[in-house]
Specification:
Layout (H helix, E strand, L loop, with lengths): L5 H17 L1 E3 L3 E7 L2 E5 L10 E3 L10 E5 L12 H12 L2 H20 L4 H24 L8 H13 L1 H4 L2 H9 L5 H8 L2 H21 L4 H10 L4
Antiparallel strand pairs: 1-4, 2-3, 2-5
Helix pairs in contact: 1-3, 3-4, 4-5, 9-10
Length: 236
């Protein structure tokens, strides 16, 4: 059996690490909200399941887009409310990572395959590796600088920075990783009302309604599901 060239395996490994780190498995009562530019969109993930959860793969061409997951089943009265002014500051801090994320994305997913395909000299490859680690180091320093706004302790900022330095393809996802650490406080329906426009609200309301109907088939009369269905009407 002939193995693929080492260069191809390297490129596939980089892409695989990036996509694997991006992918999410959502519970039936979870949605994701993602910002593209100034517009927010929402999704409940794929219609198919993996191990009882719904896979969701963010747009691989938008590595620096803030993305949060949130559940709609919890009682808003018993959950922590989102502080939207603080959330705005958090998003502003995330935006400072955008240039580094795009630079690293292009270095690893465009320039690395191109240089390997052209059989670049060892000097060129060494220079590319140096650039990659300089960008990852810049991301780590920015994590430390904005650790308070990003709600990270000193230890968490250092740990995340070291982790990204050990695996540069994961560093492309630094914004998504930070969003996953923080999450959205409160109920997903409240978040959707705040962030989404009319058309987006209707679409995610229909998607949640489908999941609710499925859950009610198995747990008819469940008080939490009935309360969630009542809250869902606020999105329509």
């Amino acid at each position: 059996m002939t193995l693929p060239p080492l260069e191809l395996l390297l490129v596939l490994g980089v892409i695989g690490f990036y996509l694997q780190d991006s992918a999410m498995l959502l519970h039936y009562d979870e949605i994701v909200v993602v910002r593209h530019g100034r517009r927010w969109q929402a999704s409940v993930g794929s219609s198919s399941q993996i191990g009882g959860r719904y896979p969701y793969l963010p747009d691989p061409l938008q590595p620096a887009s803030p993305l949060f997951r949130s559940g709609w089943l919890a009682d808003p009265a018993r959950t922590r409310r989102e502080h939207w002014a603080g959330f705005g500051h958090y998003l502003a801090a995330l935006d400072t990572f955008r240039p580094a994320c795009w630079t690293l994305w292009s270095l690893l997913l465009i320039w690395l395959p191109l240089l390997l395909w052209r059989s670049a000299s060892p000097t060129a490859m060494l220079g590319l590796a140096l650039l990659i680690y300089l960008v990852v180091l810049k991301i780590g320093l920015r994590l430390w600088r904005y650790r308070r706004v990003l709600e990270l302790s000193d230890r968490q900022a250092l740990s995340l920075g070291f982790e990204l330095l050990c695996c540069p393809p994961h560093a492309i996802n630094v914004v998504r990783r930070l969003c996953a650490r923080r999450g959205l406080h409160g109920n997903a329906i409240d978040a959707a009302r705040r962030l989404l426009t009319g058309a987006e609200r209707g679409g995610i309301a229909d998607a949640i309604d489908g999941r609710l109907a499925m859950a009610l088939d198995f747990h008819d009369g469940d008080a939490r599901l009935i309360a969630a269905k009542q809250r869902l009407e606020l999105l329509r």
